[in-house]
Amino acid sequence: MSTINAIVTDAPKGGVKYTKIDMPEPEKYEAKLKPVYIGICGTDRGEVAGALSFTYNPEGENFLVLGHEALLQVLDVSDNNYIKRGDFVVPLVRRPGKCVNCRIGRQDNCSIGDPDKHEAGITGLHGFMRDVIYDDIQNLVKVNDPDLGKIAVLTEPLKNVMKAFEVFDVVSKRSIFQNDDSTFIGKKMVVIGSGSEAFLYSFVGKDRGFDVTMVNRHDETENKMKMMDDFGVGFSNYLKDMPDKIDLLVDTSGDPSTIFKFVKKVNNNGVVILFGTNGKAPGYPVNGEDIDYIVERNITIAGSVDAAKIHYVQALDSLSNWYHRHPQTIKDIITYEAKPEETNIFFQKPKGEIKTVIKWP
Amino acid sequence: MSTINAIVTDAPKGGVKYTKIDMPEPEKYEAKLKPVYIGICGTDRGEVAGALSFTYNPEGENFLVLGHEALLQVLDVSDNNYIKRGDFVVPLVRRPGKCVNCRIGRQDNCSIGDPDKHEAGITGLHGFMRDVIYDDIQNLVKVNDPDLGKIAVLTEPLKNVMKAFEVFDVVSKRSIFQNDDSTFIGKKMVVIGSGSEAFLYSFVGKDRGFDVTMVNRHDETENKMKMMDDFGVGFSNYLKDMPDKIDLLVDTSGDPSTIFKFVKKVNNNGVVILFGTNGKAPGYPVNGEDIDYIVERNITIAGSVDAAKIHYVQALDSLSNWYHRHPQTIKDIITYEAKPEETNIFFQKPKGEIKTVIKWP
Amino acid sequence: MSTINAIVTDAPKGGVKYTKIDMPEPEKYEAKLKPVYIGICGTDRGEVAGALSFTYNPEGENFLVLGHEALLQVLDVSDNNYIKRGDFVVPLVRRPGKCVNCRIGRQDNCSIGDPDKHEAGITGLHGFMRDVIYDDIQNLVKVNDPDLGKIAVLTEPLKNVMKAFEVFDVVSKRSIFQNDDSTFIGKKMVVIGSGSEAFLYSFVGKDRGFDVTMVNRHDETENKMKMMDDFGVGFSNYLKDMPDKIDLLVDTSGDPSTIFKFVKKVNNNGVVILFGTNGKAPGYPVNGEDIDYIVERNITIAGSVDAAKIHYVQALDSLSNWYHRHPQTIKDIITYEAKPEETNIFFQKPKGEIKTVIKWP
Amino acid sequence: MSTINAIVTDAPKGGVKYTKIDMPEPEKYEAKLKPVYIGICGTDRGEVAGALSFTYNPEGENFLVLGHEALLQVLDVSDNNYIKRGDFVVPLVRRPGKCVNCRIGRQDNCSIGDPDKHEAGITGLHGFMRDVIYDDIQNLVKVNDPDLGKIAVLTEPLKNVMKAFEVFDVVSKRSIFQNDDSTFIGKKMVVIGSGSEAFLYSFVGKDRGFDVTMVNRHDETENKMKMMDDFGVGFSNYLKDMPDKIDLLVDTSGDPSTIFKFVKKVNNNGVVILFGTNGKAPGYPVNGEDIDYIVERNITIAGSVDAAKIHYVQALDSLSNWYHRHPQTIKDIITYEAKPEETNIFFQKPKGEIKTVIKWP
């Protein structure tokens, strides 16, 4: 047993403390790690606010270590041909159960959900905001690009985008989605929202060849506009200028009223990815004409959550590519580096936040 | 020009008449045909009621011949190695435009919609309720099974089901949908509705290996219960007994309130096929928790309309298989044979209707 | 321990005896079964001839019970909602290992092969030619159609065809394989061989909409020609009349010289399924032009072996459909019913053999 | 009519001249372009040697302008929102016919072949080794990355690799190809050959997560070894050290003897991409055991030729990513820049050639 520093909550009640905890030291382990950077997102804030009823502490414990968007460094590791001491790695958040999808490494598609699978820092497993972490090598994804540095902390949010595009690739095969020249040139992708996930969706959309527009119900800051511009991504305040003829719609808001307004702007054979969640969003009256619109146009609406290890690998690769081609914009996604003791960041977004991260001491 | 009998409406205003019309006789044609049986469905009734604003007469004409669920007989045909005089055929309803999907025979997935594609008896093309029809061979699908008889008139409604299962096959590939023994044994399919399309969906679902339940908000007649039983399909009055743990949900109602109640009973990785349309159905307040449910469970919702020629071929094959294994039940789907002059069937469903057809004299 | 009758070999040495063996009676079991009909095929004959070096006895035993194409009847079964005493069932041949494909019920695609997976009657597991069999319910596929009778013994060979068409479905997606009307009308499938597997491939090909021709290097018997004709399948003695413009080529011969002659008759985007095996077939000089032919035409050649439980289910469904539409031809596939003591059938094909089966007493 | 410089051959007879030719100036055109760099490959050399019987001059002409691996610059262009004067573009080589694949921009999968489709500089269409080129905008792919420079001339050979991986993606779906953690970590890809296409295949393989080894029947130069090393690609002289346990085998040699030796080292569910062609390669005796090997292991062998416009787009994107992460290695692929008058490069490879290009004056 050792005493270490950690940021903890009590799931699902909430609250947050940077405090000392006692953690057992395993006799045998594959890898011993320490955090370097850990991002925080709406889920962390929801947990601290006590707003996420599905979260729970590890079995037999009365607290939950927070943190799932992690970049770790290897302190010690058993003999293997993948990672070595000193390497930077990103740990998997969701850990498999025994369902048919979990057993092939696709716990992101768990057929059962809890308690078949667990998520570090969220449901029944401690997260990564603690001085020391023990884990199996198979749960770690190596950062190959030595230039990447702290940018690698964006792997976890980006992996969700990679999985969502995998879903798009599958469902869009129901008809010919591409142009008659086989490309996506001019195909319109609209991303609802302008937070960090919206940026990541937009950048991947550009890599995929889409004409991408981010939308929100207000104008955006000069800083964000510049970042979008660097990647060739457009922006629209949809209260002033509502996009239409959308081929791929991605929602990061979780707000039904916004979603369904945009669904009625989707083209025949269009695809809608539902990614954002906001359990408290009020109802929007979907009527017979809305259903009719979806049916007559062969529209597909796909919920997408989490991602598999391969998407972490893909995310790291895209981050490297982006970093080498647009270094400043990628760095600008991380808008604030907090110290662990600044637990107020769980309650209040730092001004101009795109992504806030904690730099672990 | 010849004068023939036809059942016509004036789209989109509505109305119905069994009347004489003047139709040009083409100098050259590939096939000359006459109707044998023609089914009627909600679309025909919607047109007659003037409720379908998207319908329109052929260009330059002030009427539209009704009828798209047709079984025709070949009166005369140019030299070819597919059909001959006397053959029974089913004509395609939707005719291609120039979009990328239309040009490969997938006008059911038309990327543009009207006016790129047209639908016989619905949008800009005369239907089949007329003494004589001229068409190209490529628009005709041969009835191969000589035993099938009038059952072949069910090809058109059944082809929609075949296409919807093609959509299911594509979108369900986003995860492992099947059991860990590779089968669908015990996978639950629920079909909302108990009309003719609901029966056809249920029968195909059984062929695909699903455990199938039809649902409606009332008990069903003894006759329908017997037909379901013959195919091993269950039934539930969902006001009394709400099914849950659904893997594949098919809606034939078009009613958002029913659809979204059932969506919240769908399993992880579940698929929802939206097929029914009812433009007048009132709004149902879809809220943040509903969206969250879809996202967290990787649920896919797919609108599906119309079908391609291959689905007509598949439909005829299934009808033959069903006819030889369950002759009485298949015959019982056709609950009433009307004469053309009985135009009241467009206003009022004959008692106990599953499918009403017109026997052309 | 009980003494029962069985037909055994000593793998891989060969030989065959109908003899008494001692088999342990398990204290607990899910299902107790007896054979009804068991087919024999080239594999059984290869084992008896000692020609299959990959076969082996169960661990610690000095004999191997033969028989993998089985139709069994349930003598006793533990409580379950799938099968009951008296039901007819077909047992799975291949039993899963721990590889990523095996663990999702796709041991037909075992990533490792022996000793990860085993095959009853072939590699390390006793087959079904014995008075009593104990098995788990998950390894049994129920015969649902009460009319099917002994025809169900064809499930095992047919399941291989179903899997091969699944492979075709996947690999043919690399381009548009179908006609520009979305159908397979006129698409040419050629099946090399005219034994039982060739018949089953041809019949499935017809169901899939292909224009099917079986070929062999001699004329065929009147009986076989009549059976083909009943299903609309053509035949060609390819020494006299070599087919060309082939879209789907299926080989059941395992003979490289025949295969590669036909490969050069395959159309652009064509698919070749390699199914037959004949380890002793002499070499055929494949040269640079042959490779060039495959490359320039985007041809896909896919080996396909075994099948998953879902293919057994599909096979049973097709057998029912065929039986009700072509009863005599389906019955005629079984050309001889032997008694267990007629072990000479393992050495010598009964005259006019398509499929020889043993009727277990 | 204007007189311009061009490098021409007389297909299929062969020969090569840098000479003046008369070319008509179209009254109307979408884009007027000039070459900047043009690569040469085995096809160009085969044409000049008169070894490619399938090549032919444009209809009514007695010569064929060579050159299909082109980087062009826009001299003049009609109003559009894709390219403007001064942009660098890569032109499509293959131009569509009317087949079902051509009509959706997939002339790389032409169902018919010549004369349905044509290839610039190869079959019936003039290539790009001439002072002035007129073309339609839809046949041009813009170079978006201003840093890329002459590296963009590698787009054409790389696009073939992108298409081959699309084929891999499709055919490998017939089973679970990936590891049980969903990744390709440790999956072994072997590329036969060490020329420019072999390098490009290897680099894409690395991007896809494979453990990649290039092989040849001799040791490789220090220069090539360094380039491989920079991308983490291994090399093996297979006469000394034959790789085995191959998951993805790519052939760039067209030599049956090498191909089939390596096929027998492919794992269960492995994929073989046949890409290289060498019509003069001698025969290799493929025997029954070779066929058996492919069947029993569910191996897929796929010919792959040419690519679609989307693959040009993907190729340009990968070139940019590689250029920014491995600038020197990417530059080192171009081993020699010739002047147009150096027509000896069509007969004799410059020493140490990976890719030779002509810099157009």
TrEMBL record, chains A, B, C, D:
GO MF annotation: an example: galactose binding
InterPro entries linked to this entry: ADH-like_N, Glc_1-DH_arc, Glu_dehyd_C, GroES-like_sf, NAD(P)-bd_dom_sf
Binding site for Zn(2+) 1: C41, H68, E69, E156
Annotated binding of substrate, by residue: T43, E119, E156, N160, D306
Names of the cofactor(s): Zn(2+)
Amino acids binding NADP(+): 194-195, 197, 216-218, 238, 252, 255, 258, 275-277, 304-306, 349
HAMAP family: Glucose_DH
Protein name: Glucose 1-dehydrogenase
Top-level taxonomy: Archaea, Methanobacteriati, Thermoplasmatota, Thermoplasmata, Thermoplasmatales
